[in-house]
């Protein structure tokens, strides 16, 4: 006989962005929903996101903003729940927001506003949230699933895994979702940290250390991708949006090419400067275009000395080449400790792109960051959490 205290239509493991969105969606369909999380509080990554103001969507989000081994997988869910749909929800709750960069919407006051929207929606839909609950086992119960937790056994018809990725382990990130995927015969693609700062090897790290805090726009390239955004020098290496974005395309051993003066005709500029002011130096040119501290340090790093009149055409070509594609081989990344996302994860080839359910098990779902869909920086990752959460919530 069904026990109302422990039997649910839907159990969702993970009270993060995707899990809460899924819970409210399923709850509004009249399903009896329980969300479990081992953390003390729900949605902790939402609270820390966007520097505390949560970049909750990107109005220009398209499937091209996502990395996956199966790039078409995300299209259907993203099409059926769009940034405008989430914005409408935010508007209904009266949350004030601002567009900080084209398409990137942030809360005007606090990321807590977005978490409040989700918790209110869960409350209105009747979805229950149980925190400080650790799931120790999941078994098939024919029909449905038996869930063993530190607070006793539970049963459900549909099980949704929304446990996120491995980034920021101090926030409760675990590989539990991957274990469940393997238990049910799914492939888990190799994972690695994405949207993460680079560390630099010595002596470059030491040479750039005095520039810590300097930020300016560059174009970073790696493995056929490029991003034109600001780069920030830190005391450990290179960060800022340009570096975070390109880090998702970087593999250990790869070299980055960084155009320090994107949009500038460097070769023509330097040739013209040599003609007009033969006594000018490369440092003079750099000072006009780069933050002064960086210009000086970079010039010293390259050992460019003397007036331009002493430079042959081939010397100037070489200078331009370095400035257009400064080659940097990072020592590594800061890893999951500071990464915003985890690349890889549950292989989507075994999931339905319409429902997020396992192909031959329509009652178990994987949503959000646990699956092999990773967005660019700029609100795309939350948009995937909302869209995949709604896709599963509509059928779970
Ligand atoms: P999420 O990680 O949000 O939730 C997973 C939940 O599962 C957690 O509550 C966790 O406690 C729980 N859990 C894990 N293992 C469990 C277990 N074994 N048992 C029970 N519960 C378990 N994205 C964006 O679009 N805009 C932004 O501004 C930012 N900013 C940002 C800043 C920082 C510092 C980080 C780290 C990340 C971002 N992101 C972001 C990325 C974004 O936060 C991320 O993609 C989503 O939170 C993913 O949502 P999920 O619900 O999939 O996982």
Kindly list the characteristics that best describe this protein:
396 residues; FAD/NAD(P)-binding domain; Elongation Factor Tu (Ef-tu), domain 3; 2 domains; 8-stranded mixed beta sheet; 7-stranded antiparallel beta sheet; 22 strands; 26% strand; elongated; binds dihydroflavine-adenine dinucleotide
Please explain how this structure is put together.
- Residues 9-394 form the RsdA/BaiN/AoA(So)-like Rossmann fold-like domain.
- InterPro entries: BaiN-like (IPR004792), BaiN-like_dom_sf (IPR023166), FAD/NAD-bd_sf (IPR036188), RsdA/BaiN/AoA(So)-like_dom (IPR055178), RsdA/BaiN/AoA(So)_Rossmann (IPR057661).
- The chain is an alpha+beta fold and 396 residues long.
- It has 13 helices and 22 strands.
- It has two domains: 4-192 and 342-393, FAD/NAD(P)-binding domain (3-Layer(bba) Sandwich), CATH 3.50.50; 197-333, Beta Barrel (Elongation Factor Tu (Ef-tu), domain 3).
- Strands 1, 2, 7, 8, 9, 10, 20 and 21 form an eight-stranded mixed β-sheet that branches. Strands 17-16-13-14-15-12-18 form a seven-stranded antiparallel β-sheet.
- Helix 1 (17-28) packs parallel to helix 5 and helix 10 runs antiparallel to helix 11 (292-302).
- The protein binds dihydroflavine-adenine dinucleotide.
**CA(first)-CA(last) distance:** 22 Å
SSE class? alpha+beta
Q: Assign a percent range to the helix content.
A: 25-40%
- CATH H-level homologous superfamily name of the largest domain: FAD/NAD(P)-binding domain
Task: Note poorly predicted spans.
Answer: none
Tally the structural domains. Answer: 2
CATH topology of the largest domain: FAD/NAD(P)-binding domain
Please provide the count of β strands. 22
Individual helix count: 13
| Shape field | elongated
Mean pLDDT rating: 96
Largest sheet, in brief, is:
8 strands, mixed
Bound molecules: dihydroflavine-adenine dinucleotide
> So, CATH architecture of the largest domain?
3-Layer(bba) Sandwich
- What is the level 1 CATH name of the largest domain? Alpha Beta
The percent range for strand residues is 25-35%
């Amino acid at each position: 006989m069904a026990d109302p205290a422990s039997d649910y239509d839907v159990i969702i493991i993970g009270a993060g962005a995707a899990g809460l969105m899924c819970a409210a969606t399923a709850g509004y369909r009249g399903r009896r929903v329980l969300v479990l999380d081992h953390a003390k509080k729900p949605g902790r990554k939402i609270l820390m996101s966007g520097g505390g103001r949560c970049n909750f969507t990107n109005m220009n989000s398209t499937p091209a903003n996502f990395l996956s081994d199966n790039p078409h997988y995300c299209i259907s869910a993203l099409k059926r729940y769009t940034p405008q749909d989430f914005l409408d929800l935010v508007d209904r709750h009266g949350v004030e927001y601002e567009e900080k960069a084209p398409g990137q919407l942030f809360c005007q006051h606090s990321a807590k506003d977005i978490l409040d929207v989700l918790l209110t929606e869960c409350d209105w839909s009747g979805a229950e949230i149980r925190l400080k609950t650790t799931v120790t086992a999941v078994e098939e119960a024919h029909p449905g699933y038996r869930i063993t937790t530190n607070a006793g056994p539970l049963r459900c018809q549909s099980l949704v895994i929304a446990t996120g990725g491995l980034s920021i382990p101090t926030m409760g990130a675990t590989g539990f979702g991957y274990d469940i995927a393997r238990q049910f015969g799914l492939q888990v693609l190799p994972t690695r940290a994405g949207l993460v700062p680079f560390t630099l090897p010595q002596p470059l790290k030491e040479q750039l250390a005095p520039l810590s805090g300097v930020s300016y726009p560059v174009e970073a390239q790696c493995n056929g991708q490029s991003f034109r955004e600001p780069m920030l020098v830190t005391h450990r290496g290179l960060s800022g949006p340009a570096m975070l974005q390109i880090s998702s395309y970087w593999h250990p051993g790869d070299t980055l090419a960084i155009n320090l003066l994107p949009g500038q005709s460097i070769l023509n500029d330097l040739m013209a400067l040599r003609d007009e002011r033969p006594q000018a130096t490369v440092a003079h040119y750099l000072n006009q275009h780069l933050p002064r501290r960086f210009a000086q340090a970079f010039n010293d790093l390259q050992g460019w000395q003397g007036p331009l009149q002493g430079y042959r055409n081939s010397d100037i070509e070489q200078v331009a080449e370095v400035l257009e594609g400064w080659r940097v081989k990072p020592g590594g990344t800061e890893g999951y400790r500071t990464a915003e996302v985890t690349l890889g994860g549950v292989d989507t080839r075994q999931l339905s792109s319409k429902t997020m359910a396992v192909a031959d098990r329509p009652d178990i779902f994987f949503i959000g960051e646990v699956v092999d869909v990773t967005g660019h920086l700029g609100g795309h990752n939350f948009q995937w959490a909302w869209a995949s959460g709604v896709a599963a919530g509509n059928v779970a």
